Amino acid sequence: MYGIIALAPFLGHDTLDQLIEKIQPQGNLRQITGLAPFLSHETLSRLVLNTDAAEDMSGIVSLAPFLGHDTLDKLMEKIQPQGNLRQIAGLAPFLSHETLSRLVLNTDAAEDMSGIVSLAPFLGHSTLDKLLDSLPKNEYGHISGLAPFLSQETLQKIAKKLMTNDSLPT
After folding, report:
1. pTM across the whole model
2. Which of 17, 81, 110, 156 is most buried (most C-beta within 10 Å)?
């Protein structure tokens, strides 16, 4: 593989795409990371979408900088990570804000708060506000990991809600 990687800058997309067809790197996409900048978008997309994400998420993450939002959106539809958002944390910098927002808002926060927290640096204030608005007061005790990413206004709103509650969560 090293020889192909060394020649990649001098070979065209078509030649590299044909070589990849022969190698079929499914199951270990990390081995082609060095080729990714020189492969066609279509080939990379096909490889990622035909890979078992549960088996090779690290390989997919290694290719993420070279994938478009469309491919990553299809991947999210395919793997349905709701309930285990932590598995896609490595992809978060490359996912669209809309996709991240949809995934977080469709996840049961009470069951996957750690996954939501792992994505928090990449979420917008409006997504976090919607999430917190849908969260029952008795779950507020579990949002400390989100606090650094919340606006001052949202933090004050939560504090006021908690002060009106007779029993504050711990």
Report:
1. 0.81
2. 81
